[in-house]
Amino acid sequence: MDLTELRGKFIAAVAGAPDEAALEEVRLSALGKKGEISALMATLGKMDPDARKAAGAALNVVKDEIDAALRAKKAGLADAALNERLKSEWLDVTLPGRPRPRGTIHPVSQVMEELTAIFADMGFSVAEGPQVESDWYNFDALNIPPEHPARQEHDTFFMHRDAEDPRPPHVLRTHTSPVQIRAMTEQGAPIRVIAPGRVYRMDMDQTHTPMFHQVEGLAIDRDISMANLKWTLEEFCRAFFEVDKVELRFRASHFPFTEPSAEVDIRYSNVGGQLRIGEGDKWMEILGSGMVHPKVLAAAGVDPNEWQGFAFGMGIDRIAMLKYGIPDLRAFFEGDLRWLRHYGFAALDMPDLPGGLSR
Ligand code: PHE
Fold first, then answer.
1. Is 172 helix (H, G, I), strand (E, B) or coil?
2. Looking at residue 224, what is its pLDDT?
3. Which end of the chain has fewer beta carbons closer than 10 Å to its terminal beta carbon, N or C?
4. For position 153, what pLDDT does the model report?
5. 76-114 pLDDT, tens per residue?
6. Rounded to the nearest 5 degrees, what angle is found at the Cα of 145, between the Cα atoms of 144 and 149?
C-alpha cells in the first residue's frame, strides 16, 4: 500500500471540500467505519508482530494528519459561514437615534376634565362603575326586564358564558346609566353625581363607533324637578361651549328608566366641514334625560315616596366634535399622531373654570 499517495489524496479532498456536507463525505470515505484508512487498520491483525508495529505506527500518523486537516477545514468553513452572516446582518451604530413619538392629551380626555370641572362647580362629584357589567345593573335595575324591546335596541356585546351555565351573561355596558344604580346603592339620597366613561354598542358608521363615551348625570333630592334639569343642562352648555348663546331643544321621548323623558338637541352649523355651535339650522342630539323612574329609585334602595330627581346621559364624543370642530368621529379612535398633534392638548393645561377651560 502506498500511504503517501493515500495521504495526498485525502488531504487534497479535504482542501477542496466546498462546504460542511462535502467535508463530512470525505471524512466518512477516509475514517468512517467503511473508510479506506479503517479498512487498512483492519488488515493489521493478519500481520506478524514486527510488521504490524511498523505499519500500525505509519498508519496512525496518516490517520492523525487527515483528522487534523478535517478539523482545521471544518473550523474554516464555520468561520466563513459566520462572516457571510455578519455581512448581511450588520448594524450601523453611528446612525442618529429616532426620537420617541410624543403624544398629547386626547380631546375626549380633555372634554372629560372640562365637564368634570363644570359639574364639580355645581356640586356634582364623580362616580364610577365597571365596563363589564351584569345584565341586572345594565338592564333590570333600570326597569328594562329581559323581554323588553329596549334590550334589542341597545345592540349589546355579550361576554362568553358556557352553554350549561344558567346565569345570564355579563355585557359590555351599553350606557353609563348602571352607575346611577351603583352610586345610589352606595351613597343613598340625597345625591349629585356624574359618571363619565366608556360604553359599547355594535354600531359603526360616520357618527357611530362600537366604543364611545358618555357622561351620566344624576341629581336626587326631595324636590328636584324638570326645571332643575333644564337649568343645569343650559348652564352646563354655556360654560362648556364658552359661548353666550347656546340653543337647546327639548323633545319628548321615552326611556324605561325615566318618566317623563326628553331628548335634547343643540343648534349648530356645518360650513365646509367647520362645525359651529349656537348658529345655523342643524340640530345634533347630544343627550337623553328625564325624571328618574320610581322603580329605578326602589331598585337602588332609595324610597321613591321621599326622593325624586333627574338623570341624563350625554354623548361625550359628540360634544367634543362640536366644541373643537372635529368633523369625523372615527378619527377619535384611529390613534393617528398627526391628528392628535392637531386636535390634542398640552398635558399641563388642566382645565378649570377661573383659568378658562380650553386654553
Ligand atoms: N342611557 C340613555 C342612553 O344611553 C341616556 C339616558 C340617561 C336617558 C339617563 C335618560 C336618563 O341612551
1. strand
2. 98
3. C
4. 75
5. 999 998 998 998 888 888 988 888 888 899 999 999 999
6. 70
Distance from residue 179's CA to the centre of ligand 1 (Å): 11
Closest CA relative to residue 202, chosen from 171, 161, 167: 171
Q: Does the Cβ of 255 fall within 6 Å of ligand 1?
A: yes
Q: Which residues of the chain have pLDDT under 50?
A: none
3-state secondary structure of 287: strand
Domain ranges of the chain: 3-88, 107-343
Indicate which residue's Cα is closest to atom 10 of ligand 1: 289
Query: Is ligand 1 within 6 A of the CB of residue 175?
Result: yes
Type and span of the H or E element at 53? helix 49-89
User: Thinking of the domain 107-343, which architecture would CATH place it in?
Assistant: 2-Layer Sandwich (3.30)
Beta carbon of 312 within 6 Å of any ligand 1 atom: yes
* Ligand 1 nearest-atom number relative to CA 180: 9
Please indicate whether residue 256, judged by its CB atom, sits closer than 6 Å to ligand 1: no
Sheet strands (E) in 229-350 = 248-255, 258-271, 274-277, 282-292, 308-315
Q: Is 320 helix (H, G, I), strand (E, B) or coil?
A: helix
Question: Residue for cell digits 355596558?
Answer: 173
Query: Contact, 285 vs 264, CB < 8 A?
Result: yes
